[in-house]
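One chain given next:
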Amino acid sequence: MITLKRSRATRSFFFLGNRQRELLTKIVSYAVLSVGAFTMLVPFFWMLSTSFKEPAGIFKMPPEWIPDPFTLENYVKIWQKTDLARGFANSMVIAVVSTVGEVFVSTLAGYSFARIRFPGRNVVFAMLLSTMMIPGVVTMIPAFTLFRYLDWIDSWKPLIVPLMFGSSFAIFLCRQFFATLPEELADAGKIDGANQFQIYWSIYLPQARPVIATLAVLGFIARWNDYLGPLIYVRSAEKYPIALMLTTLNTMYEKQWTLLMAGSVIALIPIIVLFVSLQRYFVGSIALTGIKG
């Protein structure tokens, strides 16, 4: 009986007109995406709600989505309990410097792999891609040993310097993007007497705004939210980025969940502003990258 009903529903779908099928497909697609988006946003809504609660209201059953009473005290206390301004500044320096370096080197390397023919290019590119398969935990101890030998512990250098040489994923993304651009652009530059760096800087890089925006968003978010790296390498409290600074609110003897949620909401603001500002370039890059191999 169930099989018969399914077969009838399938036949009725195919007997619909093209516009009706397209409309029905869109409705189902938007419904599924809306459910998925709502599911992903539930933790954010809970964090936002908790940031306006009093400590006694966190673990009430059934849970309260709308705080009662509603208070802004947590957003005042978080600035008093922690040096949040210093944490913002530290995270901003680490995220901006490392991301700018990664974007510049990755676009330069991606252009080289896509447009410059040199011996062993495909072999080197394949070796670069193979490094993406190595889990970060495998290199954690060797990296710590190296940075300790260089006397970089308790500094931001381990969090910034390695990324200044690019990353395999970023280089791959740039290579795929530059491969989609017309070869005639480089030929025109060569006719005008430009060298390879001038062609990259003046012709190809201005066309790469979508991939640059993508790398900027992904790189900034990864550095801004990084907790494990600072936990391993940074020892002094005045050098803590904001992700590590917020964890000091919860100790063995005291759990300040409302303040932690308020600080987390504040810490999200730069990420939201950056993503909204570069959203159209970000979406454009996802649509274009990978069309041509």
Observations:
- The chain is about 70% helix and 0% strand.
